[in-house]
Every structure is written in C-alpha cells, then in structure tokens.
Amino acid sequence: MDLVKTIKEHFSERLEPSTFHSRFFWRTAESLARSPLNRPQWKADRVSLSYFLAITRDAYLGRGPVVWCNLFVPSELVLGLGCIPFYPEMATAVVAAAGMGPRFIDRAAEAGFSPDACSFHRCAIGLALEGFMPEPSALLAVNYPCDSAPLSFAFCGELYGRPQVTVDIPLPGRPGGQALLAQQLEETAGLLAECSGFGGAEVEKGLAKALERSNQALRYLREVEEMRKRDDCTLYGVDAMGGISVLFASMGSQAGADFYRLLAKELRTRGCAGGDSIRLMWMHIKPWFAQGIFSTLAKGGARLVCEEYTHATWEAMDPHDPYNSLAAKLGNHFLVGPVERRATHLASLAEEYRVDGAIHYNHWGCRQSCGGAALVKQALQEKGVPTLILDGDCVDEREYQEGQISTRLEAFLESLR
Amino acid sequence: MIAALDSESAVAWFCTYTPLEILDAAGLVPVRRYGDAGSLESADTLLHTAICPYVRACLAEGIQGEGPHQAVFVNSCDGMRRLYDAWRDRFPDDLVYLVDLPRNTGDGAERLLAEEFRHLARALGEMTGHEVTAVDLREAALAREERRLSYLRACEGLCGEKRLRLAMAFHSRLYTDMPPCGEPAGTAGGVPVLLSGNLLNPAGLVASLDRAGARVVWIDLCNGDRSFATPTLPRGESLDELLGSLARAYLDRHPCARMADAERRYRTLEETVAAVGAKGVVYASLKFCDAYLYDFPRVQERLERAGIPVLRLESDYADGHVGQMLTRVEAFLEMLE
C-alpha cells in the first residue's frame, strides 16, 4: 500500500463532522490556500478556490441561510436573495477527489439506497446521514438535468426537516413555458427571502446586482471560449472541467466575474501552445478520483479542447427583469427536453472547436446522459466525428476499470491518427 | 382481440399519466404497450443497459415491428424521455409526441399541465385532422370513467396475477372488447398483501407471489390498480375549462413515486393498506428506476413506523430469477401470519 493511500485512509477514518464546524479548520484551510505551497496553474484558480472556501466555511459555520442546490439551480437567484448556495453534487466531487467516496456511498447503502442509483447522490446522502453536510435552511432542486436530484433532495429535506422545493422547467417550445417557469422562480425567491429576511427592495436590489455580475462573467467567459478555439490553447480540458463548479455555482458573485476576467487575461498573455495534437471533446463529467485516463490521452498525443459543461448556454440577462431572465437561462439549456437538443449542441461544439474525436464518459446510474449517449454518438458520427463511449463512474473508484479504459482509449486514439 | 394495431388511428402509450381522454377525443385508439421482456438486447444499440428494462422492452418490441409506431410518451422520468428520443429516432415518420408532466401538484403545476394538455389537444388536432372539441372530450371522459368503474366491478375478488392481467387488459383493449371477468378468487387462502412499485410482469414476479401463498389484494403499480383508483372526469363547459379540470384530476391520481408530494403518496398507501385489509406491503420495482430506488428507504421507514411490514423485491422485467425470491417471500408471509 503506498504512502498517500495510507495517509488518506488514516485521515478518512479520523474525519469527524465536528471538523467542519471548527473555525480553526477553516482558518488553516484558507491559510494553506493562500500560502506559496499552493501554486495553481492559473491565477483564476486562486479566486475560485478562495470563493468556494469562503462560502463553504460560511455554510458550515452557519453564517447565513444555507440553500442546497442541484446543478441547474441558478446561483444568481440564491446569492441575490442573500443566501449561501451549497451544491452537494460538487461537494461529492471534492470527496471523490480526496478518495473518500466509497465510505459515504457505503453509508447510503446501509440506509437502503441501491447501488444502481447515481453515486454523486448516494455519496451526498451518505455524507448527510453521517452529519458531514452543512445543515440547510431549504433545499432547492430543478427537474433537470436528471431525476436523481429532486429525489435525493426530497430524502434529505425529510432528514433535516427543512422545506424542499422542486422547480419544473416546462418542455422547450411550449407557449407560455417561460412565464410559467418565471412564476415558479419568483415563488422560490419568496421562500429564500423568508430564509434571509430580505424585504422587497432588498430582493430587487440583490437580484439586479447578481445578474449584473453574472453578465460580467458571461462577457469574459465568451472571451475565454473564443481563445480556447485556437490551436492548442494552453488551457487543458481536464483543468477546464474543474471550472464546472465556477460556471454553475458562482454566477452572480464577484468571484465568478473575476475568475473569468483573470482567465481571459492569462490566456491572452500565454498565447497559443502550438503543436498538432489530436483535438478531442469530452462529454458528461470526468471521474474525479482518477488522473490515469488523462495521462493516457496526453501520452497518445491528444488534448481535450472542449467539454460539454464548461460553456455559456445563455444570453446576457436583464437585471430589472430577473425572473424572466433566469427562466430563459434555465429553460433554454440544451439538457432540457429531448436528447436531440443535446446532440445538436454537441455537434455544433465539435464543429466550432474543430475536434478530431469525442469521448462520452458514461457515469453509472446517470439515466439522462447514458440514456442519450448512443443517440449523441450517432449524431456526432453523422457529422464525421468519431465517438468513443466509456462506461465508468465519477465518484466511486471501485466501479472504475483503469486497465480496460486505458486499452479502449489507446485503441481509439490509434484510430484517429 | 387486441385493438387493431395496424389501424391508422392506433397509438401506443406507456405511462399512466398519459391523458387518454384527449387521445380518444382526437379520434385515436390508445393502446398500452408492455414491451417484449424477452429481448431487451434488441434495444442495446439505442439505449444503455442501465436504463429501465420496461423502457428497453418497449423499444425492443417497437423495433421488432410490433405496432403501432404512432406513440404518445410522457416526460415522467429520464428513462421515459430517453425512450421517446430513441422512438423518434427509429420512427421519424410516425406521429410521436412527448407530453410534459410536472413533479409538483399545486396550483402552479396545474396551470403548467393544463397548458400542456391544451398544447397536446391542438397538436393532435393538427396531426390527425380531427380537431378536439369540448363535446368530444366530454364524451371521451365519460367513456373512460365508465371503463374505470367497469374495471373496479370486474376486479372485485380478483388477486395477484389475474388481477394484474385484467388491469392490463383494460388498459390495452378497445371499449367494445372487454375481457370476461373469470372466476373471482374470492377470499379463500393466502396472506393478504398490497403490492406497490412501478410496473411488473404479471407472469414473472407477480405470479411467483401467488405461488408463494400471497393474496395480492391491491396492486399499486403503473400497470395495475393505480390508474383506476381515482376518477379523471373533468368538469366545465368550454374545452379550456375541461382541459384545466382534467389536469387537476391527473395531478390528484394516486401518485407515482416520481411526484414531489411524497407525503400524499405515503398517506394514500397507508390508507389503502387499511382499506383492503392487507397485512403487509410487498414493494417490488424494476431495476434502474430512480424514482423507486430513492423512494424505498423513505417508504419503508414510513410504513414500518405505522406498523406495516414491508418486503423489498427487485425485478428485471423478464424475471428469470424469481425462483430465488420464493424463500424470502415465504418467510415474509409466514411472519405476517
């Protein structure tokens, strides 16, 4: 057994929920993040790390009403209403990266949760059952991108005895759909305002500010996207995927805008790496505990130049019409409704980023992505983009076959040369 | 005789939240499909193996040429939406429609579903050339209500596999071709249980419950009693009013586990257990159904708190493994006695 594994296991066994409620722990974590020992590849990463440490600290220390959100909950809404957004799906990615997913997944299994369900949510449930999650004031889920979030949040809502709200995004192209969604968002804002004690004027002002900051972030993100279309952009896809949390959970904060501003600036400064790598697109999410898959890509002369969930999928919003603006942002996402929308979006990304091939990582238990993988592959192949589907897991390392995946990847890269 | 599957008006449906009254009113003949549980692998090219086996069975059946290929789906879960996607890909020239369904059941959800039903009525009118009118809808709804009451009369005393087959026949056949009721099972023998879950194969797991000595007196399944439990007769004069009222009626049905109002579902289950005199609940669901995977720990805790024993079983729809379950079922029934 190697040393790192031994340390991890030792740490995992000694980890207690009380650790996260200790000011000392957070001061230490923040000091380490600021210290010269932490040398992120991008300056922007310091901003995002600092932001997530701060809001997670505030959530655990109870410095404001905590709202659990699934991936699609617009952080502008939560931040604008003076609440602290907490995204369990992102928390479990961190837990998985630390190699501690199995402990909490097993805890959920003890409580009767089937191994056939998504490990992001089983891990989150395990964390909640063991008392490792920050206690929510409310839990907010959107009915997309998957069924798991509303269902697992319902369980956790009951566990904590807190209100759990599900927002129903109507199918795209329905007359009146956006208005119906906007109405739900406004009702949800009412609940969040009750949590934070915001009055009417504060709500209006808070949301306007959040949307303005989100618009700033969007402008810089568009710049980043343009620069990433160049040959061998210096931002690797595997690092870009670390920014999924920024895209979904920090819009509406100053940190979100600063992150993309700094990233755009640094990409301009660093310029283009040059070279003639095989250009690949990554679909769905990456395994958070494994780097081997990306080493195989690098060894095979391939670069991830674009990823499914790191792009802006919405237009600038009107700060004075927050609910309609957020409804448009949510309702127009390519994962809402039929898979055809997702396939079309991915095909256009493949074209814009001039990819030579695409990889769809099937996270076990994710019906929305695995369910559509074959049809997405079909759509990409029709556009001349060879596509590889890999079965694995993003959180539970026990369900990840490193050797098998490497072999298939190598064969795929060989076929692209 | 099954509805004429080759007829131009036959339309397949798959989920009990399908507003059949609107399909009837549009001049269509809705036919419930149960898929081919024996050839799931035919669906592998379009659907991942970790997707609901009912969904894969339905696609397999469709691919093998069993019509109709005209189909109305409900956006009830990821699996069902993916079936719609695959079906549309496979049968691009057929009428294939996806009806939205909110998870919530309050006023906002009612407005959303009413709007969706209006959209469906308009779309079907355009597709079939038969405009849906208030008169059509009222007549269709009355006929559906009569059919529901006929089922409730016909299933009196029937249990287990026989009862489930009858429910499925009522879902699938034409009004004019109702199956004979057969001999009611009466109350002789067996331990009375309520079966709850998503959708099951009557010849598989349900038949094995009968063999083990269970008397399944109520079938809270998508293909069982659930859709017959409450009326969906809309009120109102105009088409708009009727569709709005129909939306409310569908939201008020005995809920599937995918709906947000779990409290109502658990209360309904508890009340039904008492009403039908069941001594316990067999909770059986198809693999890979998230709604029921996340529901089980909650429903178990809730029912056990109410003093109702629960047995959890899982099905792969083909149910080749049911023999292995018998011991567990028998032990559970023994405990209930």
What does this structure look like?
- The complex is a heterodimer of chains A (417) and B (337).
- Chain A has 417 residues and is of the alpha/beta class.
- Chain A is 55% helix and 10% strand.
- In chain A, the strands form 2 sheets. Chain A has a 4-stranded parallel beta sheet, with helices on both faces.
- In chain A, helix 4 (75-80) links the parallel strand 1 (66-69) and strand 2 (84-86).
- In chain A, helix 2 (23-34) packs antiparallel against helix 3 (43-60), helix 6 packs across helix 7 (119-129) and helix 9 crosses helix 15.
- The longest helix of chain A has 29 residues, at 200-228.
- Chain A is globular.
- The two termini of chain A are 38 Å apart.
- With 337 residues, chain B is an alpha/beta fold.
- In chain B, 46% of the residues lie in helices and 13% in strands.
- Chain B has 11 helices and 8 strands.
- Chain B has helices spanning 20-25, 53-63, 78-90, 107-128, 134-154, 160-172, 202-212, 239-251, 262-276, 290-305, 322-336; strands at residues 10-13, 29-32, 71-74, 96-99, 191-197, 214-220, 280-286, 310-315.
- In chain B, the strands form 2 sheets. Chain B has a 4-stranded parallel beta sheet, with helices on both faces. A 4-stranded parallel beta sheet of chain B has the order 6-5-7-8, sandwiched between helices.
- In chain B, helix 6 (160-172) packs antiparallel against helix 7 (202-212).
- The longest helix of chain B is centred in the middle third of the chain and has 22 residues, at 107-128.
- Chain B is globular, with a radius of gyration of 19 Å.
- In chain B, 55% of the residues are buried.
- The chains are: A alpha/beta (417), B alpha/beta (337).
